[in-house]
Amino acid sequence: MLKQMNGPLLKTKFQPAPEVSSPEDQAAEVSRRKTALTSSPFADAAFRYLMLGCALSVLAIVVLIVRELIIRSTLSLHAFGLKFFFRQAWDPVNGDFGALPFIYGTLVSSFLALLLAVPLSVGVATFTTELCPRKLRSLLSYMVELLAAIPSVIYGLWGIFVLVPILRLYVEPFLAKYFGWTGLFGGPQFGLGMLGAGVILAIMIIPVITSITREVMSAVPTAQREGVLAIGATRWEMIRVGVLRNARTGIMGAIILGLGRALGETMAVTMLIGNRPEIAKSLFAPGYTLASVIANEFSEAADDLYLSALVEIGLALFVITLLVNIVAQLMVWSITRGNAARATA
User: Fold this and answer.
1) What is the DSSP secondary-structure string of 51-65?
2) DSSP of 236-287
3) Inside any domain, residue 206
4) Mean pLDDT, rounded, of the chain
5) Which SS3 state, helix, strand or coil, does residue 34 take?
6) Whole-number Å distance between alpha carbons of 123 and 159
7) Could you tell me if residue 160 is inside a domain?
8) What pLDDT digit, counting tens, does each position of 248-279 carry?
9) What is the four-CA torsion angle of 64, 65, 67, 71, rounded to 10 degrees?
10) How far apart are CA 41 and CA 39, in angstroms?
11) Does 345 score more than 60 pLDDT?
């Protein structure tokens, strides 16, 4: 009985091991697999050209946009030349056009928005990254991202019904009383004007600058913070020296992205800026931007010269955006080069 039970077990236990291939067979198998992996030149070439096409498509889109803007604005370019960008006239009835008031309004409103938004955005990002309790951090971050998802026209409506009355009744009288001597806060106080457009733009670009700044500050190594604290620095000195100084290149990129949105914003600015083609020193005065004049008057362009002038304004907006990005890249390059030099030293 025991022999019968041990029989199958002994057979199973003493079965011969599978035959092990020789080193030559293993080398041949590896060579065969390599050949199989490299034997598809068509797939490799197709993938390479597909990726090249994706990269070139971006360049092609930019070239097509510039080409269309230049072709459609040819009539205005021939009529006014480069003086179009330095003339203040805007008279569609008599066919006299100039883009200087719109360039002025675009630059002033955008830089006013940056002046208001950058300190607040960096402060919010610093608080959520370094000082905020963990339970509140996710809620505050979600609210900042929610602001970025609100449509532009909603900001415009909120500006008309809430922001404009506040500016007209409280903010503008205060500024006129105490800072009217500067010349920047004089004239009628209607709430609609360059100041209102700058404030609404600042609110709109705060989420962009804050989100990117928060990510950049979070990417600073923890060892950097601990090293600064180890030499006796306070919490503020640690944030200023160990975090903000190392993250300033990314913060500059966040500011430029915010400026890019401010330059091209249309609906909210159109609803609050007053839409008057003039250059005024006072921030209470109404103005016009490149984007808002196109949105307001493109459907009303009755003749070819009028339409061509509006397209040339679009070309001016494109050129201004391009120049701002070039300046930003130069600033980032100079900061990065300085960091590399200090690191080498």
Assistant:
1) HHHHHHHHHHHHHHH
2) HHIIIIIIIHHHHHHHHHHHHHHHHHHHH--HHHHHHSB------S-TTS-B
3) yes
4) 82
5) helix
6) 24
7) yes
8) 888 888 888 888 889 888 899 999 998 888 88
9) 130
10) 6
11) no
- Does residue 85 belong to any structural domain of this protein? yes
Domain count, the chain: 1
Give the pLDDT mean for 77-99.
87
Nearest to 156 by CA among 97, 211, 118, 203: 203
- If you search the block for the tokens 């609803």, which residue do you land on? 271
Separation of alpha carbons 272 and 160, rounded Å: 7
CATH number at residue 86: 1.10.3720.10
pTM of the model: 0.78
Question: Is 86 contained in some domain?
Answer: yes
Query: For residues 70 and 107, what is the distance between their CA atoms, to the nearest angstrom?
Result: 22
Beta bridge mates, 90: 97
DSSP H helical ranges for 180-234:
194-218, 222-230
The two three-digit tokens of residue 106, written as one number: 């675009």
Task: Write down the residue that tokens 């600058």 correspond to.
Answer: 209
Q: How far apart are CA 126 and CA 124, in angstroms?
A: 5
pLDDT band at 35 (very low <50, low <70, confident <90, very high): low
Q: State the residue range of the domain holding 93.
A: 81-336
CB–CB of 175/185 below 8 Å?
yes
Cα separation, 164 vs 63, in Å, equals: 41
pLDDT tens digit sequence for 278-304: 888 899 999 999 999 998 988 888 888
